[in-house]
Design a protein that fits this description.
Blueprint lengths: L6 H39 L7 H28 L3 H9 L2 H12 L7 H25 L2 H8 L1
Helix pairs in contact: 1-2, 1-5, 2-3, 2-5
């Protein structure tokens, strides 16, 4: 906190430090998943089933954007509340709209396709940018330092 870095560097660095390892683990799990699906379906299809373009877009673009969004909300909340448990609980509420989207897809009320994922990715990218801007504006280095003293 007392280092000569900007608020933007602190916010983005803190977010990336949490998101990048999670994205790497997710990518590794996706590669394993594709290998297992292809091994199971090879006898019937005689060609790999996964990954296809939509899965790649989801795993390589949309998932990291959502991870950055969730982390951005957590950073923003933790900068404003005094109790870490409260920050963690409030940040968990971010998952509710995502669960709602999955439920709507399962109920066949949303037709997930290329256009849907492109719009979803663009909206989450915009929200990520807005969260970084809000985090930088609300970042109060002096208040955080005085809380530790």
């Amino acid at each position: 906190m007392a280092s000569p870095v900007s608020a933007a560097e602190i916010i983005v660095g803190k977010s990336l430090a949490a998101v990048v390892p999670a994205a790497v683990v997710s990518l590794a799990a996706f590669i394993l998943f594709c290998g297992l699906v292809d091994a199971a379906s090879w006898r019937l299809l005689q060609e790999p089933l996964l990954p296809n373009g939509m899965w790649l877009f989801g795993v390589l673009v949309v998932a990291p954007l959502f991870a950055f969004f969730g982390n951005g909300v957590a950073v923003l909340v933790s900068a404003r509340v005094a109790d870490s448990r409260l920050a963690q609980q409030l940040s968990g509420l971010v998952t509710l709209p995502l669960i709602g989207l999955v439920g709507l897809q399962l109920a066949n009320l949303i037709k997930a396709g290329t256009r849907y994922y492109a719009i979803e990715g663009a909206v989450v990218l915009l929200l990520d940018i807005l969260l970084v801007i809000a985090g930088i504006r609300l970042f109060d280095r002096d208040r955080l330092i005085s809380r530790w003293v």
